[in-house]
Every structure is written in C-alpha cells, then in structure tokens.
C-alpha cells in the first residue's frame, strides 16, 4: 500500500515488532500479545494506537501476505517490509539483530533468527520502552494508556 514511516504515525503510540510471517512461534505470540492488549483499549485509545509488524523476509513476505497475516490478529497491526538495505537500517536503529540461515530440514528452506522485543514508541516518535514478546498484555495496556494520557496533557 505504498510507503509508511513512523512520522506518519506521530500522535499515536506505536508498538514495533520485527519478524516474518513464516515464523513458527515467536511472531504469532507477539502479535497475539499486542492484539490482546489492544482489546482492552477504548475506541479513542485504539484510534491513537498502532502496531507495525516489520517483516525481515521481503523475499517471501509480500504486502498482500503481510496484510493477510496481521489481519488474523488485529486491524491496528500493520505489516510492512522493504529492501534488505532499508530493513538493515531500521533494525540498526533499534539494535535488532537478524540473520537468515539455510534450514535444509525445514519445508521453508531457510529461517530467520531475530530479536524478539516489542518496542514501544511514544506519540512524539521516541522509543520509550522495550518488552519481551511474551509479556503479560496488561503491562502493555498500562504502558499505552499512560503514554496516551501524557500526550493529552
């Protein structure tokens, strides 16, 4: 759907997560955690909350595939990807390590090992906190609500 940058999401709390759609466990758990957190927000809070699922597998993860994958979880979760160069730059900003490894035993042919933190970006576009991917979603809810409240002051 064209390009999207964090600047486009200023004024919203953004949860960033890096992964790929064929990820067997970590990514679905993270997106389920984020989706669960979103389910506790009011409509107003939801209007100011987004999650970006940044695919580290542009070879397989088309925008269509990403849309379908994130759609299973929550409409506020947006799948994005880019060239390996662009992804490398974004990953560096957040100190996300990722590596594509051949996996002959896997039907996929390769897997991508990646950091599994959820990054919380405040409405001004600054990184506020990182959480483990399998955090209790209530802690995520509290973080989102407090950043939105602070933004209204």
Give the number of DSSP strands.
7
Radius of gyration: 15 Å
For the biggest sheet, the summary is: 5 strands, mixed
Q: How far apart are the termini?
A: 34 Å
Low-confidence stretches: none
What's the shape? globular
Main sheet strand line-up: 3-2-1-6-7
On the 0 to 100 scale, the average pLDDT is: 91
Q: Structural class per helix/strand content?
A: alpha/beta
- Helix percentage: 25-40%
> How would you spell out the order of helices and strands?
EHHEHEHEEEEH
Number of helices: 5
β-sheet strand percentage: 25-35%
Summarize the structure.
Helices cover 35% and strands 27% of the residues.
Structural summary, described in words:
The protein has helices at 26-38, 43-47, 63-71, 84-93, 137-152; strands spanning 13-19, 49-55, 77-80, 98-103, 109-114, 117-121, 127-132. By secondary structure, the protein is α/β, with parallel strands linked by helices. The protein has a 5-stranded mixed sheet with strand order 3-2-1-6-7. Strand 6 (117-121) and strand 7 (127-132) form a beta hairpin. Helix 1 crosses helix 5. It is globular, with a radius of gyration of 15 Å. 34% of the residues are buried.
């Amino acid at each position: 759907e064209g390009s999207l940058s964090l600047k486009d999401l200023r004024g919203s709390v953004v949860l960033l997560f890096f992964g790929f759609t064929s990820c067997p466990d970590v990514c679905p758990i993270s997106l389920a955690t984020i989706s669960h957190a979103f389910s506790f927000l009011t409509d107003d809070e939801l209007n100011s909350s987004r999650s970006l699922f940044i695919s580290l597998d542009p070879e397989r993860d088309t925008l269509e595939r990403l849309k379908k994958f994130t759609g299973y979880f929550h409409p506020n979760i947006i799948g994005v990807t880019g060239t390996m160069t662009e992804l490398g730059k974004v990953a560096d900003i957040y100190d996300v390590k990722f590596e594509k490894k051949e996996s002959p035993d896997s039907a996929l042919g390769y897997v991508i090992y990646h950091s599994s933190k959820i990054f919380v970006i405040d409405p001004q576009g600054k990184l506020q906190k990182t959480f483990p991917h399998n955090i209790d979603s209530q802690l995520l809810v509290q973080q989102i609500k407090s950043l939105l409240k602070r933004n209204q002051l």
